[in-house]
Amino acid sequence: MKRYMSVWFRHLAADRLALRYPGLGQQVFVLVAPERGRMIIRSVSKAAGQLGMLPGTVLADARAVYPDLLFYDDDTSQDKLLRSLAIWCYRFTPITGIDGADGLILDISGCAHLWGGEEAYFEQIVSRLQAGGYHVRAAIADTMAAAWAVARYGTTHPVLSSGSQAEVLRPLPPEALRLELPVVDRLRKLGLTQVGLFMDMPPSVLRRRFGQSLLDRLGKALGRIPETLVPVAPPEPYLERLPCMEPIKTAHGIEVAIQKLLEIICLRLQQEEKGLRKARLTCYRTDGQQQCVEIGTNTPVRNLTHLFRLFELKIESIEPDLGIELFVLEAPVVEGLTTQQERLWDLDTGDKKDAVMKLLDRLESRIGSSAIHRYLPEEHHWPERSIRSATDVHETTTVAWPEHQMRPVSLLGAPVRIEVSVPIPDYPPMLFIHKSKIHKVVKADGPERIEREWWIEKGLQRDYYQVEDEEGGRYWLFRSGHYGEHKPEWYIHGYFA
C-alpha cells in the first residue's frame, strides 16, 4: 500500500527572509513584486497572515489599512530553497519531490515503522521543520492529491487511516482538488461548495458541465487514477576515479595518483564553498584485492597541500603487490567552508595570543615595525574612509567588516591615475597602462557604483570594476564621472590576492 506525505510551507519566502534577518521574526511584513504597473503581495509573514493579508493583494490597498506595513522585494530563488529542503528530507525517505511553489511530497511507503509508526514519523518531520524556523502544515494519505488537500484545507487529524480519503475529502471546499479557478467558480455558483456534494454524481454529468479535468482531479484524490511523483535527484557524491594504463607499483606513482585526485576534489569543493572532514582512498589491485586508507580533519579543509601531507603519512601502509590498476578517492563527509579569511586577531586563548605576539616580534626584527600595519573597519562606504589604522594590537571595534562586498586585500592610500582603452561607455577597459606596463584585461566584473558621502564632501561618483589581466593579476579599478558630461578619469585603487 502506497502512502504519501504532503508538506506545505505556508510562508516559505517570508520565513526565509526572517531566517536571514532574525529581527523580522515577529514583525508584520510582506514580500512584493511588480505586476502590470502595480506592486502585488507575493508572500506574507505569519503575523501579516493573522491580520488577514493574503498573497495577490495590491500593496497600496494593504498599506491603506496598515500604514506601517513593512514590505520587501520578493526573491525568485525559492525553487533552490525547496530543492535543498527536499534533499534534507532524504533522511526520512529515499523518494522526495517538489510540489508546486511552496510544498514537498514524500513517498513514505515502508519508512514510517523506523520511527515507531506514522504518528511519530509525522511529528518528527513537522517538529524539526518548525524548529528550523518554517511554518508548515502536513498530512499523510494513500494518495498525493488527498495528502495535498488535507495539508492545506483539512480540519481533522492530518494522518489519515488507509482507505479513508473519500470521507475526509467530503467536507473540504472544491479548491482542495487543485481545480482551475473557472471550474471552482462554476461549482460555487451552483451551490456545490463541498467536494461531497458532487463526488457521487455520474461521471458523464460532471464531464459535461465541468470538463474532464474535474474527473481527473477527483480520480487522483480517490486513488482511481495513478499520479506520478517526480523525485529530486540526490546530490552527486564527492567521488573521483583514476584508472591506470599500467599497474602502479611504486610509492611515487601512488603519490602522483593521490595528487591528481585531490586536485579534482578540491576544485569542486572550492566551487561549492565546502571542505572535507573525512576522505577515503581505495586502491584496486590487479589480483582483485583492495587497499584502503582514510584521513580525517578537525575542521573543513580543501587545501591540497595539507590534505596530501595527511595521505602521504599513510602511503607506506599501501601494499601495491603486482600493481594498482584503479584509484578511487571519496569524501563521504563534507561541510560548508566559505572563502572568508580566518580572523587572526581573535585572541581568545593565551596560547594563540602568545603565538601572534611572537610572530610579530620576529617580523619586526626582520623587516622593521614600519612595515607591519593593522586596520579596523569604519562606518563609511567611501573606500578611503572605510578603514582606519589601529594604534595597538589589542584595539577593537564594534563595526563589522562588510563581508558581502568584494574588496582588495591591498588598498592603496590614494588612487593612482591610469590610462585605459574602453570599447564603449560604461564598459570595463580592454587594457590599461600602469607604471608604464600594458595590462590586457581578460576578465572583468562590475560596475559597482559608490556615491560620495555628500554630508562630508562634494564630488563625482565612482564606478568600480574588478579586472584580471592575462598574467592572472587582479586589480580594483574605477572610473570617476560619466562619459558625455566630460572626459572621465580612470584610477587603480587596490590589488586582489
UniProtKB/TrEMBL annotation:
<feature type="domain" description="UmuC">
    <location>
        <begin position="9"/>
        <end position="150"/>
    </location>
</feature>
<dbReference type="InterPro" id="IPR001126">
    <property type="entry name" value="UmuC"/>
</dbReference>
<dbReference type="InterPro" id="IPR043502">
    <property type="entry name" value="DNA/RNA_pol_sf"/>
</dbReference>
<keyword id="KW-0808">Transferase</keyword>
<dbReference type="Pfam" id="PF00817">
    <property type="entry name" value="IMS"/>
</dbReference>
<protein>
    <submittedName>
        <fullName>Nucleotidyltransferase</fullName>
    </submittedName>
</protein>
<dbReference type="GO" id="GO:0006281">
    <property type="term" value="P:DNA repair"/>
</dbReference>
<dbReference type="InterPro" id="IPR050356">
    <property type="entry name" value="SulA_CellDiv_inhibitor"/>
</dbReference>
<dbReference type="GO" id="GO:0016740">
    <property type="term" value="F:transferase activity"/>
</dbReference>
<keyword id="KW-0227">DNA damage</keyword>
